[in-house]
Amino acid sequence: MTEPTPLPLVIKDLTFRYNSRQSPAIKNINLTLEPGQIMLLAGSSGCGKTTLMRCINGLIPHSYHGEMTGEILIHGRSVEGMGLSEISAHVGTLLQDPERQILGTYVLNEVCFGLESQGLSREQMLPIANQALERLRIQHLKEKETFFTSGGEKQKVALAGVLAMQPNILLLDEPLASLDPASARDALLAFRALADEGLSIMIVEHRVEDVLAIHPEKVLYMDDGEILYAGDSAGLMDAVDYRRIKLPAPVIARRARQEPVQSFRPTVPEVDPQSQPLISFQDVRFQYKEDMPVVLHGIDLDVRAGEVIAILGHNGSGKTTTVKHALGLLKPTEGKVLLEGRDSKKTTIAEAAKTIGYVFQSPTQMLFAATVSE
Asked: Closest Cα to residue 170, out of 98, 62, 88?
């Protein structure tokens, strides 16, 4: 009688506490992931989702240290004593911040990086890398410098690099965070296709409604380091706090109707259309290099005190490039950007920062101190 094939991932009674914390980040985690399954792991920020993924891919205890109890089995083998390179041969991870994952100068080089580290020849690497790029519909980016890709494009490039390694377990930490709706749909369809081919996938995501569209076989909901719900997507709808994760609109409406009505009157700012703009874009054109395509084509925009303005567009459309011009991080190739009447080309970033506060797409680029209070 043959022994049953071990499951790709089994976790038994897993608890982990960081050295810097008094209480555990995750507690008593039990789960299994089978071949061809997609598991959606949902929960609010800080509930322990990323910590769980770090335990699976070996970043805990190799890069993050603390006290861990319980057991993690990958294809029947305990990860205890396994090195990162050995774990990564089975487990591919897309980090929440793709900036921390991209090492190559050009997109194609980046996608080939892991394959090259395995000793594959150029002739062996290129077909695999091109297939990964095609899966995510980003073949057009393969000759582009990674530095000049948008946040959403970086997300897809990093994912292509992971897929090229052909892992049999794929961990995705908020893979839709930087993607526009069309790109998110393409990525989700690619995940479903990979699972249907036998890959085991765990998706950590706040955009629950989007992931439910590809019918994950298992759904987990975490809060305060514990799994509060494990089951199918139908049961999730009534088990979670709909204010913390994005559920389908009809579900939110139904749940909200069951609660007492709370009056809410938003403050509508008064904007003087005759006032001097705080920021004024005047026929702004911009390209990163002379031999590269123009990114901004004649932007005209005034921003006045009290206004709330949304800048919308698909990944790579120029949204971040536009906003960086307001602060003076970038200067127009042609045209002018005026900050309270002063030309941005004659204003330092330090001077501009007295008027403009800017939150980067990647918050890790803004954090310098060891603790939150600092």
From this structure: 88
